[in-house]
Predict the 3D structure of the following.
Amino acid sequence: MSIPISTEAERALNTKEKTVGQVLSNALKRTFDIICSVLGLILFSPVFILMTILIKRDSPGPIFYKSRRVGKDGREFDMLKFRTMREEPASYNGPHITAQDDTRITPVGAWLRKTKLNELPQLWNVLIGQMSMVGPRPEDPEIVANWPEEARQIILSIRPGITSPASIIYHNEEQLLNGDHVLEEYLHNIAPDKLRLDELYVQDHAFFSDLDILFRTAVKLLPAMDLSNIPENLLLVRPLQRFFQHYLVWFGVDFLISLIAIGIIGLIERATTVLNLGWWKALGIAFLIALLFSLVNALLGLGQISWKRAPGYYLFDLAFSTFVTTTIVYIINLNIPGGSLLPPRMIIYFGALCLVGFAVVRYRTRLITGLASRWLKLRGKAIKMGERILVVGAGQCGMLACWLIEKSELNEIYHIVGMIDDNPTLRGMHVDGYRVLGNTSEIKTLVEEKDIGIVMFAISQINPREKKRILKLCNESGAKVVIIPDILHHLEEELKRPSTEVHEQSLAE
């Protein structure tokens, strides 16, 4: 079965002339999808095993759930997910859209939905060509049947994706839906904007914009993928589990990292110089050194730190522990009867590599999300997600406005394209990460060129005549104009006020 597309739309799709660039872009996208899906299925295989155990412990029923969706050219397919609902008639007969506190969802299912791990099986859909890594999220046939014809023609012209700009912006969709009329609320409040975002993606998508979306997905979702969020009734922390979690796990991880580091340096040393220890002797030395690294880390309490939220200065603790262990090994090696077994430089090298390994494993989530954030910054936030903003003013008020948007949930709905300032020395410069695109006389031109939806006036300490001139240019641009109050000036005035005056005013209110 498939969702019908009008004769005109089908003819337009079939007769649309494809350029060489489009063909190459589609081939690159499909190759990327195959590589990512294969690697993902391999790398996430331990997660699949863990999810299988948790789902089976949580409630009886199958591991996977097949959800009927509409794909490219209106063809329907079964989209795979980890099962998150109870296996009972109510789960199948209820609304196709789930809301917050839906009684059909199991405890583990709620965690899977929050972290989006329930979507991982869709890597198989990507591998067999039904879906892509990035694309409009596939919808239920009943919902697609109510789409406007033009939107259906555009969105169904490419493969649906695991993630998309719309799915990132509406990552908390279930929290936005409440009440008894969930489907009607979804169709009225959320679906139209998701359609708009999906149409924009289809019209403007490219390989690097897909990478932007994948990195942004990592930034949004990775911090939530923590096993500590699994419902307590399934992962009760008993004394034995606590000992295992705080001591044995990190002891084992550090041992493995040390062993790998020693092995790498040993192989490099053997390839470049003469190092004839014999395999069994080399393995024994490596085992003892790795054991010592793990033991020192454990004695210094590095296994009892919640590394998910650990500040950066704990790197000094890791460095100190590694330095102590490396020094011990270095001294022992120099004082072995009959001469040292290992070249001294080799001990220093694998000590440094161990430190890198310890840091990467402990700060892995922030390293990945930091890399993703840096990618988006370097790309200049090229993807067109949400409303585009042009900030007028590159001073303190403008920087504060940018910071407030970037550090809040507004960042998912709006994104700042750049700044405008009349200071000629700032033109082309980056102020707090945002490029100064021109001066105020170019506002109208930039609004048209950059597809700006909102012009944000954020200039403090400006004379009324100049403010009137700039606001006139802003209004003539056709974009929505938002005036940012001088928050810093207001804060300065409040700080200068006598405390008694502030106290009396608060009582009066």
In short: The chain has 22 helices and ten strands.
